[in-house]
Amino acid sequence: MKFKKYISILLLILVTSFTFAQVKFETKVSKKKLGINERLRVDFVMNQDGDNFIPPSFEGFTVVGGPNQSVSNSWINGVRTYKKTYSYFLAPKKRGNFTINQATISIDDETYKTLPVKIAVTAAVDKPKDPNDPNYLASENIHLVTEVSKTNPYLNEAITVIYKLYVAPNTGVSNWREIDSPRYNDFWSQNIEIKGLKEEHGTYKGEDYRFVVLRKTVLYPQKTGKLNIEPLSLDLSVQVPTNRRDIFGSRLMTRVNKTISAGNKTITVKPLPENGKPIDFTGAVGDFNFNVSASKTELDASESLQIKVGVSGKGNLKLFKLPKVSLPSSLEVYEPEHTENVKTNLAGMQGRISDSYTVVPQYKGKYPIPSISFSYFDLKTESYKRLSSNEIVIDVLDGPTNDDNSNSVAINSGKQQVVLSNDQFAFIKTKTNFTPLIQTYFFKTPLFWSALLLPFLAIPLAIAIRKKKTSRDADVYGNKIRKADKLARKYLGNAKKALGKKEAFYIALEKALHNYLKAKLRIEASDLSKDRIVNLLKDKQVEDSVISDFVSIIKNCELARYTPITNVEMQQDYEKAAKTISLIDKQAR
C-alpha cells in the first residue's frame, strides 16, 4: 500500500511539472466590439521567453501605439510564474467585422501561433469607453477655451478675446507650442503682452480646474455682419495618471502628445445707425474729448505758430481721421504733423492723437480761425455726438499790409461792361491755300533697306547678350547679392520717398521691415513679436550681429515717433535697414 501511495505521489508531481512546462501563447483584446472613434488594445501573452516575435498585419486598423514590451517574473509558494507581453494600440479605419490574425514566436526552437480573434467595429459612440486610455484621459482633462467679451458689437467697437488653458488637478502640461495662430481677418487687432504665465484656480463646466491665460487680444471689427474668429491650436505634452501604482501606492503617470484647438467663434457686428449720422462723420466710435489750440495768438508777419487739433479719450483712436483746419488764404499753412500717444489694454485704445499745423502769416491784420467740429458715435448712449471748438483770432501786429490783394478783390467784385467790336470774328479764315499731295513708295527706300538688314545685324548682338546672361546665371553668389539688394530696394521704396518726413518715414520703414519678414519667413503680422523674430532668424542661421541690427531698427521705428530726429539720423536708419535686409537675404537658409 505504501508503494502504491508513493507511485501516486510521483505521478502527481510529474503531471504537475508537465502542466507547468506547457507553453501558452495567446491573444487578449480589451474589447471585441467597439465604436469607430474608440481604441483597441491587443496583448500577445506568453508564459515562456521566446524569440523572433512576428505580429499580424492588423488589417482594417491603424497602429497608433506599440509595440510595448513588458515582463513579469514572480515566485509564489516556491512556484515560479513568468509572463511576457507585447502590447499594441489600434484605431479602426472603418466600420465592419475584422479579424486579428495569428502572431508567431519561437520558443525552444519550436514555433507557436495564437488563435485569430474576431472584432466588430460599429458606428461612433458618444465617448470612448476605456477610462484608462491616456489619449482619452488627456482629452477629458485638458481644455482650450476662447472667451469673447461681446458677441454683438458695433462696427469699430472694441472686443476682447482671451484664450485660457484649463487643466484638471491630477494632470500636468509641459512643452506646449502654438501650431496655428488666428489671423483675425476683417479685424484691427492688437495682442496684449503677458509677462509670465500665472496659474489660477477656477471652474470649467462646474468642476474645479487650474487654468492659465495664454493670450489676450483686442479686436476692432472693420466689417458688419457675421465675422469668424479663427481658433488657436496648440501642440503639447500631457502627463496623465494610469491605473498602475508605485511601491508607495501613488499613481504612476504617463506622457502623451496632444493637439487641441479652441474652436471657431462667430460674432455678429452691427452697423452704426444711419439715423442722425453727421455728414462729416469719419468713423470715430467711443468716448472722446476734442480740443483746438494755438501756440500763440499775437505775432509778427513771417513768424510761425502751431495750431493743434487733438482728440483724447477711449475708442478707436488709430482708425479715424481728424477734422481739417480751415484758414484764410493770407496765412501760409504746412502739412500737419500727426502724433499718437495711444496705449492698448483689455479695455481697448486709450490716449490722445493730434495734428499739428505750422502757420506763417504774410501780412498784418487780424485773422479769425472759425470753429471746428468733431463728431463721434457714443457707445454708452448709442447715439452720435458733436463737439465744437471756440473761434480763435490770430492778431498779426507788424508786417506788410495786403493792399494789392484788397484792390484786386475790389476790382474783381465789380461788374465790367462787355464791349463788342466789328473784328471780333477776325480769327476765322475764309480763304484756303491747298497744295498737291505727292505720293511716295516704301520699296527701295533707305528705310526699306534698313528694315531688311537690321535682323541680320541683330544676330551677333543677341549672341553676345546670351553669352553675358549665361555667364551671369552661373555667378550664383553674385546673383544672390543682386537679388538681396533688389529686395531691399523694393521693400524700402516707400520709406525712401518719405525721407525728411519723420512720421511718414518711420511708419513706412517699420511696414517695410514687417512686410519683408512676412515674405521671407512666411509668417503673419500677428506673429511679429521681437522674441519670435529673433528665434526665427536664428533658425534660418542668420548671424547674431545682423539679428541685433534688425531688432534695433524696429525699436528705433517705435521710439522715433516720440523723439526729435534729424534728417541725417533718418538717412542712417534707412541705409542700415537696407544693409540688414540684404545681409539677412544672403545668410538665411
UniProtKB/TrEMBL annotation:
TM region(s), chain numbering: 447-465
Recorded superkingdom: Bacteria
Signal peptide: 1-21
UniProt keyword annotations, A-Z: Membrane, Signal, Transmembrane, Transmembrane helix
Pfam family, any one: BatD
Name this polypeptide is given: BatD family protein
Species for this entry: Wocania arenilitoris
Lineage: Bacteria, Pseudomonadati, Bacteroidota, Flavobacteriia, Flavobacteriales
